[in-house]
């Protein structure tokens, strides 16, 4: 790991001012610090945002659930508000990594990092989330751009994530046995006017499956998934699973998610 300066910000405006040059924000550091140790990333300054009070907290209304960016996975998993309004989101958070990761890693950090096998991005797409930053609101549909790439600009800081409360929802994944990242994860959410299905782990970035959404909009049942053809083109193929296997598991996880709704 190369040398860096460590700074702390007391508010989002101060943090944004500090984010000049090769600086980046630090919350839990569960992805950032390993990348720096392996010299996959290097920064001149790490800006600690954990002390910014208005980046934490969980608020729920009849239509939405808003979670502060520095809320840890453990806090999301154990939150009564999350468990009551979107229980599938609490289940997702409880399945991330191990206890150490869940107690340090943050929802904002995970979404900003946009690992192609991370869990939260699928929740953002399926639950029609709005990513709030220090300068604007970004619909989840426009936020995730590619592998480790998002719509965030230099110095832009996620402050909270606002999820739309669905009628029913569930997340199912085939986890990597070591890291617990998703080899394939499928989040299904049923709303009054639409069904949204988001897939993580299978491609270069999280994506919505229009084929599954169409089938489930007509018939919201596991049997509807059987009629869908999932192409393996452009899916990941690596030591953990081939593209063809991932295509097959998308259907398996989708059926499981629908069954659990």
Task: State the main characteristics.
2 domains, alpha+beta, 14 strands, single chain, four-stranded antiparallel sheet, globular, Enolase-like, domain 1, Uridine Diphospho-n-acetylenolpyruvylglucosamine Reductase, domain 3
* Quaternary state of the chains: single chain
CATH architecture of the largest domain: 2-Layer Sandwich
The DSSP helix count reads 12
Classify the helix fraction into a percent range.
25-40%
N-to-C terminal Cα separation, in Å?
45 Å
Mean pLDDT, to the nearest integer, reads 96
Determine the structural class based on helices, strands and strand pairing.
Answer: alpha+beta
Q: What fraction strand?
A: 15-25%
What's the arrangement of strands in the largest beta sheet? 4-5-10-6-7
- The first-level CATH class name of the largest domain: Alpha Beta
Biggest pleated sheet: 5 strands, antiparallel
| Number of E strands | 14
- Determine Rg (CA atoms, Å): 18 Å
Uncertain parts: none
Number of structural units classed as domains: 2
- Shape type: globular
């Amino acid at each position: 790991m190369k040398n860096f300066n460590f700074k702390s910000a007391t508010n989002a405006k101060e943090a944004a001012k500090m984010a000049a040059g090769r600086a980046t924000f630090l919350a839990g550091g569960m992805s950032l610090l390993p990348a720096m140790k392996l010299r996959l990333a290097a920064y001149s300054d790490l800006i600690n945002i954990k002390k910014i009070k208005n980046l934490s907290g969980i608020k729920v209304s009849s239509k939405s659930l808003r979670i502060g960016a520095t809320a840890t996975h453990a806090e999301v998993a154990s939150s009564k508000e999350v468990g009551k309004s979107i229980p599938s989101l609490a289940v997702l958070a409880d399945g991330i990594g191990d206890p150490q990761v869940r107690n340090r890693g943050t929802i904002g950090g995970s979404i900003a990092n946009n690992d192609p096998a991370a869990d939260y991005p699928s929740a953002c797409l399926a639950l029609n989330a709005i990513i709030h930053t220090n300068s604007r609101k970004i619909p989840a549909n426009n936020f995730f751009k590619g592998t480790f790439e998002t719509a965030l600009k230099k110095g832009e800081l996620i402050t909270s994530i606002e999820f739309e409360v669905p009628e029913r929802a569930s997340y199912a994944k085939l986890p990597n046995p070591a890291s617990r990242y998703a080899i394939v994860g499928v989040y299904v959410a049923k709303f009054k006017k639409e069904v949204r299905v988001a897939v993580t782990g299978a491609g270069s970035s999280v994506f919505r499956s229009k084929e599954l959404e169409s089938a489930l909009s007509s018939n919201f049942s596991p049997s509807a998934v059987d009629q869908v053809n999932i192409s393996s083109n452009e899916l990941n193929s690596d030591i953990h699973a081939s593209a063809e296997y991932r295509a097959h598991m998308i259907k398996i996880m989708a059926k499981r998610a629908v069954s659990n709704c």
